[in-house]
């Protein structure tokens, strides 16, 4: 039985008049009568008595009214949920992101998305950039905020603003007193860095800048995430590069300085080539708007 026929029955049950019900439903009276007969056949019982004196509900018709109303209401809710999902307003979004991304405008974008789409469930996963790529490839997440270029060229991306690198230095370090710092000034300094397998592009960019300045990198310890690296700097283990967003969070015992020619960390949202969902597209739009406003 279809919901339209149930709606027709409810209207006749309300008006107890086929002609009036047909007019309100924008149907011809024969078409309405046919729908009621088809519904009664599907139900397996006569729902309405029709004779010269008028229309009356049978006992079966009386019993059918409340479940019929519930069925129509449930159908309307189901249709509304489908429409909202098609517009990216209902459903679930699995979002992976790097720790560096969590110190950008991303948290604000997530809050803006939650406000705009309260009926979307957000699953958030913080992992490193290669792991975000792999999770997208396996279909474990829908969107990923990571650092291009990507190893998997078939993933689609939309660029976000880069995150500048700044140098984290222990408070009182000789470099903290310089009016300007270049890579040549880092000669001989013990350095901390994220493992190359976690962020090969960033690792190579920093070491390339050092070597271009005639400085051989002296990496004394690998550390990840960048918040841990900042903690090791505070402990005097060495110096290291973090993003400006991490530096903005501040850390006792650490000062942050710009280094001339320091690379920036690229940032992008990625998704599988099979296509982005309506919810994913809505998140992209909200994120782009938020990043551009800060």
TrEMBL record:
<feature type="domain" description="HTH lysR-type">
    <location>
        <begin position="1"/>
        <end position="58"/>
    </location>
</feature>
<dbReference type="InterPro" id="IPR005119">
    <property type="entry name" value="LysR_subst-bd"/>
</dbReference>
<dbReference type="Pfam" id="PF03466">
    <property type="entry name" value="LysR_substrate"/>
</dbReference>
<keyword id="KW-0805">Transcription regulation</keyword>
<dbReference type="InterPro" id="IPR036388">
    <property type="entry name" value="WH-like_DNA-bd_sf"/>
</dbReference>
<dbReference type="InterPro" id="IPR000847">
    <property type="entry name" value="LysR_HTH_N"/>
</dbReference>
<protein>
    <submittedName>
        <fullName>LysR family transcriptional regulator</fullName>
    </submittedName>
</protein>
<keyword id="KW-0804">Transcription</keyword>
<dbReference type="Pfam" id="PF00126">
    <property type="entry name" value="HTH_1"/>
</dbReference>
<keyword id="KW-0010">Activator</keyword>
<keyword id="KW-0238">DNA-binding</keyword>
<comment type="similarity">
    <text>Belongs to the LysR transcriptional regulatory family.</text>
</comment>
<dbReference type="InterPro" id="IPR036390">
    <property type="entry name" value="WH_DNA-bd_sf"/>
</dbReference>
């Amino acid at each position: 039985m279809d919901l339209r026929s149930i709606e027709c029955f409810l209207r006749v049950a309300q008006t107890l008049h086929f002609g009036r019900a047909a007019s309100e439903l924008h149907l011809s009276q024969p078409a309405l009568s046919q729908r009621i007969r088809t519904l009664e056949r599907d139900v397996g019982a006569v729902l309405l008595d029709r004779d010269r004196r008028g229309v009356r509900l049978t006992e079966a018709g009386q019993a059918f009214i409340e479940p019929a109303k519930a069925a129509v209401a449930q159908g309307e809710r189901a249709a509304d949920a489908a429409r909202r999902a098609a517009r990216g307003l209902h459903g679930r979004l699995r979002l992976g992101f790097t720790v560096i991304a969590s110190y950008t405008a991303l948290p604000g974008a997530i809050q803006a998305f939650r406000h705009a789409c309260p009926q979307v469930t957000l699953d958030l996963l913080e992992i490193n950039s290669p792991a975000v790529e792999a999770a997208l490839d396996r279909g474990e997440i829908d969107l990923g905020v990571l650092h291009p270029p990507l190893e998997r060229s078939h993933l689609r991306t939309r660029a976000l603003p880069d995150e500048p690198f700044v140098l984290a230095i222990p408070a009182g370090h000789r470099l903290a007193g310089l009016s300007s710092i270049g890579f040549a000034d880092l000669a001989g300094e013990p350095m901390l860095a994220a493992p190359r397998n976690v962020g090969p592009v960033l690792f190579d960019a920093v070491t390339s800048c050092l070597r271009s300045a005639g400085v051989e990198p002296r990496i004394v310890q690998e550390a990840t995430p960048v918040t841990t690296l900042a903690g090791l700097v505070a402990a005097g283990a060495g110096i290291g590069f973090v993003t400006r967003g991490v530096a903005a969070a501040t850390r006792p015992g650490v000062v942050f300085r710009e280094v001339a020619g320091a690379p920036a960390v690229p940032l992008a949202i990625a998704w599988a080539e099979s296509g982005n969902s309506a919810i994913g597209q809505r998140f992209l739009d909200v994120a782009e708007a938020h990043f551009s406003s800060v």
